[in-house]
Amino acid sequence: MKRHLLAIFVLFSIQAHAGEEGLSHVQVQTSLAAIQRGAETFMGQCHSCHTLKYMHYGDLKHFGMDQHKVDEWRGDQALDAVISSQMSDEAALQSFAKVPPDLSLMTKAREGGPDYVYSYLLGYYTDKDGMTANHVFPATKMPDILGGSMTSDAAQLEAIRKQAGDIVSFLTWVADPHEQERQRLGYYVLAYLMVLTVLLYLVKNRIWSRLK
């Protein structure tokens, strides 16, 4: 039985490794500064086509992002408005023959998670016919928004990698904006359980000492 369970575990491990093979690893940042940089890049480069249907402008403000930036991004929309794309579905269909996907849960939906999105953003190249293609998702209709395929300059490529990392950090936060709060709460819960365990142990000893 143990051998069968071990074989199943190894099989799943191999499949998971194979699914992520070829992806570049990204260190997801959780700081306000990194997430705000990612939000700025998203709103400037991605917002024209992509939506964040589970995120509201008020969520950005509540997280601590600069109020003036949030007000600039939302324009005349209310704080509780969903961050929707600036392009209508009809215009998107005419331009790309499909509606660009919502990115609210993209870092969780794709195998490889943040690494997949990061590798996809940096996966653009110019093929032998002079056309822009993508190593990670060859069927993509999205243009190379960061311009990695258009430069060979090391400094520019490093700046593009940082931008891609910030976008991924932002989208990872969007996919689970309360993760840090849950983690902080978890520490308090563990501390409470430890204290409760000690108190119950002392009570148990006192009760049993009377019965002996």
Question: What are the defining features of this structure?
Answer:
212 residues; two-stranded antiparallel ribbon; mainly alpha; 9 helices; 6% strand; 4 strands; 2 domains; two-stranded antiparallel sheet; Cytochrome Bc1 Complex, Chain D, domain 2
What does it look like?
The protein is mainly alpha-helical and 212 residues long. It has two domains: 26-177, Cytochrome c-like domain (Cytochrome Bc1 Complex, Chain D, domain 2); 178-212. Helices cover 58% and strands 6% of the residues. It is built from nine helices and four strands. It has helices at 2-20, 32-46, 57-63, 67-74, 89-96, 106-109, 114-121, 154-175, 179-211; strands spanning 52-56, 82-83, 124-126, 132-134. It has a two-stranded antiparallel ribbon with strand order 1-2. Strands 3-4 form a two-stranded antiparallel ribbon. A hairpin with a 5-residue loop joins strand 3 and strand 4 (132-134). The longest helix is centred in the C-terminal third of the chain and has 33 residues, at 179-211. The two termini are 44 Å apart. The model is unreliable at 4-19 (pLDDT under 50).
